[in-house]
Design brief:
The protein has about 160 residues and is α+β, with helices and mostly antiparallel strands. The chain folds into two domains: about 55 residues, no CATH class; about 80 residues, Glutaredoxin (3-Layer(aba) Sandwich), CATH 3.40.30.10. The protein is about 45% helix and about 10% strand. It is built from seven helices and four strands, in the order ααααβααβββα. Strands 2-1-3-4 form a four-stranded mixed beta sheet, with helices on one face. Strand 3 and strand 4 form a beta hairpin. Helix 1 runs antiparallel to helix 2. It is elongated and about 50 Å long. The two termini are about 20 Å apart. The relative contact order is 0.12. Bound molecules: FE2/S2 (inorganic) cluster. The site of FE2/S2 (inorganic) cluster (FES) has 12 residues, from helix 5.
Amino acid sequence: MIFDYGALDAIIDEAGCRSSAIIPILQGVQEKYNYLPSELFPYVAKKLKVSEARIYGVATFYENFSLEPKGKYIIKVCDGTACHVRKSIPILNKLRKLLDLSETRATTGDLGFTVETVSCLGACGLAPVITVNDKVYPAMTPEKAETLLQELQTCLAE
Ligand code: FES
């Protein structure tokens, strides 16, 4: 991937070229790339006249920021208590098996999919719940997850 410094400049201009804008700048970059490419740290540090360590500190403090590339579709399987007792783990296992992923390998090689767990999505009444790029899918089963995955794979191929 070739890093687009022009796009980063536009994000910095919009957020404001000042140290208080670190979070919106990181949010803008993550929205564009789905993660925070390493190229941004020295560049933003120089522009904002702050240390790289400070930006890195913000990036690692908030769990919504990722330093690893993620897939186009980010699937979050809730494993909070309500979802766990309603069998979220078989859904997770099914998705991982179909995508050849594991606990240590969360993203497919083609960057199509990332499968993660979360502790509670705040929709316990709809358990077990998964989200795909923040869209909520309630009352999931391994079978429904497989069908959904097939639909997403079709979208990815188009
Ligand atoms: S435990 Fe899954 S939504 Fe709350």
